[in-house]
Amino acid sequence: TLLHYLTLFHFSRYEARQQISLKLDPYSHIIGDDSVGNLSIFSHAGGSAEFNSLAFLNKVREVLIVTDGGTK
Questions:
Q1: N or C: which end of the chain has fewer CB within 10 A?
Q2: 61 lies in which domain range?
Q3: Per the domain annotation, does 71 fall within a domain?
Q4: Number of domains observed in the structure of the chain
């Protein structure tokens, strides 16, 4: 789908800017303070709630994946 291609394009551009090297800790982007999940949470403008952009994009992907019958 279009969303998959846009996501792949975004991450390929992101990875292209990184310097290629051996990773001593291959899980640094998954676990910890600088993990993808931790960095995907933003404070709401009002300050009382948090917005998880990763969960939001997952829901968008879920809505876009439709079978031939038109329903999930």
A1: C
A2: 33-72
A3: yes
A4: 1
